[in-house]
Design goal:
The chain is α/β, with parallel strands linked by helices and 202 residues long. 28% of the residues lie in helices and 14% in strands. The longest helix is centred in the last third of the chain and has 24 residues.
Length: 202
């Protein structure tokens, strides 16, 4: 499934990096990080990468992946933003923990006992998302039980949300808490640089 990864070395992706290549992993600092554990659908990962670029977040991918990073669907969903993504790829969860050395982690799951909107996010937090078909690895539900967070779904017929949608909802709520007020405070009133959620200048 991942054989196409070997093609990455020949592709001009100056901002992307692999933890396999000796990188320290996700950057430290005072913002937010996103991690996908065993993602399966390329266009979901591409869309999440685009969201991370918009927010200035790092994105970590934990193998196995259900696609090659050279997949056209990843690039198509990420559009021309993909080249600006700060990306790290990890061989497994233990590799991620050792190389990224994350601080506080929040694990998004329908099994979470705490709502996203009851969760207090802090600078440097990592938001972790499972795969499209299986969610988080089974051991995570016990190991990280106190850190499971759910996105409310009051509708009676939905079992889960699309992964890219869930990531956008969670990352933007974390952004709102961590940096939203600060960003608004520093934006000049009426500035053409202020933009709505759709990216249209106000």
């Amino acid at each position: 499934m991942e054989t196409g990864d070997v093609k990455r070395a020949a592709e001009p992706r100056p901002q992307a990096r692999s933890a396999r290549d000796g990188e320290a992993g996700l950057r430290g600092g005072d913002f937010l990080h996103a991690v996908l554990v065993h993602p399966e659908i390329p266009h979901n990962t591409g869309a999440i990468g685009r969201t991370c670029v918009a927010l200035g977040c790092d994105l970590g991918l934990v193998r196995p992946l259900g696609f090659a990073l050279s997949d056209e669907y990843v690039r198509r969903a990420g559009l021309d933003y993909w080249q600006h993504l700060s990306l790290a790829v990890y061989d497994n969860w233990d590799d991620f923990l050792a190389r990224a050395r994350p601080g506080r982690m929040h694990f998004l799951s329908t099994k979470g006992g705490r709502s996203l909107y009851e969760t207090a996010f802090e600078p440097g937090d990592t938001l972790v998302f499972g795969s499209e078909s299986a969610g988080l690895p089974e051991p995570f539900y016990e190991r990280y039980r106190e850190s499971l967070v759910r996105i409310p779904m009051p509708g009676p017929h939905a079992r889960s949300l699309n992964l890219a949608n869930a990531a956008s909802i969670a990352l933007y709520e974390a952004y709102r808490q961590v940096a939203g007020a600060r960003a608004e405070d520093h934006a000049p009133a009426g500035s053409s640089r202020e933009r709505s959620a759709t990216g249209v200048a106000r």
